[in-house]
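Researcher: Re-running this chain for the archive, since the previous output was lost when a drive failed. Same request as before.
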Amino acid sequence: MTEGGGLDVLSKKDAKAVVVDSLYPLYTSQRTQMDVIDSWLNLTHEGPKIPVNASREHRWIATLAKTPLLGTVVTTVGQALYCTGYKTSIAGENPWRTWQANDFDHRQTAVHRAALGYGLAFTVVTPGQDSQGPRSVIRGVSPRKMVAVYADAAEDDWPMYAGRFEKATDSAFMVQLIDDEVIHFVKIGASGDEPEYIEYREHNAGVPPVIRYSNMLDLDGRTVGEVAPLIPTAQRINKTDYDRMLAQHSNSWNLRVFSGIDATQGPNTEGLTPEQAAEQAQIRLRQSDIVTLKDPASKAWSLPATPLEGFISSRDSDIDALASTAQIPVTAFSKLSNISADTLVEIRAGLNQKVFERQTSFGKSHTQTLRMAAYLEGNLAAAEDYEAKMDWRDTRVRPWGQTVDALGKAAQMLGVPVEELWEELPWLDQTDLEDLKRAANTATAQAARAKIADAAAQARQDPTVARLVNGANPS
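Model: Regenerated structure tokens:
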């Protein structure tokens, strides 16, 4: 239906119906799942189960038992994911400039972490302008705020429509309904009722410019993050930590026991109940005190402290299970000593494989984002460059001296151009590489000019050349 400007878009009535009847139920369902994961990432989840009548002291210990292990999993993988450039063979402006204009050198980290933790993340690309002309706006969106509807969630690159929910007030949401041509702004109540159409803005992308980042997308269109499968293991570790701290707090010392002594007899017991008298007459011993028992029938002995080694070994076992399930080196959770560089490389082999898989998935989404940005900027050649790919920083643990030596041998023995090997240096991003290549070209030109000048100077020393330069007849 046409709504102003001759553009064929949803009517106000239809837009409100899509938000209330379709997007809002999907959003509440997805948000509930994401909030559970978020609680484990931010330590707001429920602690170990304790009795209803547990003391305040025991409840306090239960709060201490929550350890951010699942956040460590996300951090360990996320820190190994960093894009440093965009490879394209198309002439013209490289979309990498739009990436940097949107500060995605920094923003990419939040997108990666959301996709790793929740299993999903999104970017939204909209038209924009800067001092040099069209410049698309790219923003990352959390799956706690956005839902996307696909005809085939496993196969389709673009959704049929998407909705972004932002809390306007405590009792209302502002919803952006994104379709093929425009973004509708609809305000609804906190319960998904009372829809109010505000306005719409054109984007003219031809598809909803919403790009999905999935951690592990299967052929049924399902994706799971790093956190959800590990929650049962993390719960076991929290329970073990609680039991260990409870034993440490209450039973980690030897208990002295006396028999044959009437604790109710002694000074200051007059007028006290037997319980009060017993508490006041308790024998409190210091380290230097010596106890003597005059009554032969009296006895003294001690009960041993509860050993903590069992709790510690149980926790270590669960940590190993968590690390192997998450494909994370156990060194991320515990301290290991006397590890050689080669051993550390082997320990991190599984993580390297996981990182490569995530680079493949997230890299495809990044290139899709930049192609959409190029399309909205009118850069059609870059928008249709399906061979473009992202450059990723190499964060593998390895001796850099050996790396540089290997690259040098590749240049000398295999004849690989040195400029091509620069891309293997992990501390250089695309801007650094371009600066280095420009400097090398300048240095090459200067060296060529110097070589020509030296040749000319040597030639002038030849008598025949000298006569020619001076206009003399060589004959």
